[in-house]
Amino acid sequence: MNAMLFAAGLGTRLQPLTLSRPKPVVPVANRPLGSFAMAHLAAAGVTRIVANVHHLADVAEVLLEQSAPSGVQLRVVRETELLGTGGGLRNAWSLLRRGANSVEPTIVMNSDILFTPDIARAIETHERLGAVATMILRPDPNAKSYGAIEIDEEGRVRRLLGRPEDVDVPLRALMFTGVHILSAGAANDLPDTGCIVQSSYRHWIDQGRV
Questions:
Q1: Is the pLDDT higher at 210 or at 132?
Q2: pLDDT tens, 155-194?
Q3: Whole-angstrom Cα distance, residue 73 to residue 172?
Q4: I need a labelling partner for 76 at 20 to 30 A (CA). Which of 13, 36, 47, 172 fits?
Q5: What is the DSSP letter of 140?
């Protein structure tokens, strides 16, 4: 199974720590932060990870490679300019899908989170619903203030960031965790640059495909 690790951000909220070291490799408990995400992906059965880097790319690449779990092949893609989550995925997609079977999904995870979601359950839900993409969400009492992802009783996303307004079924407002499952065909709707949520997910939700 393959996974994409987002590791290209500037880490501005962690300055001055990130002036000399990218956020994905800032030490936490004497380990690079991104190593926790890679370890969880490996535990879920991932054997191949592609990570995108940009800010202090040399440092990020070396420390991520050093902390990759045993049995996991890590490939690093450098972005000369930030492409965003959607553009970063599109740029790395050929590497992500190389060696994957035609129906195998790709797991996508941020490198700067300490979070251990049930990836196996997410994949089962993704396949059961036949979705092009599946978001792993979390409860938050302030979800609507921050930008809620609203799902129906079946678990399908019906409203994204307040749109569409006219949904005629009960919805539960949750927050996106930065972990998602993408079908092989998702590449067709990825942007060259920009945010995957505001571009691709907007398109998929409007079509009822998530």
A1: 132
A2: 999 999 888 888 889 999 999 999 999 999 999 999 999 9
A3: 38
A4: 13
A5: -
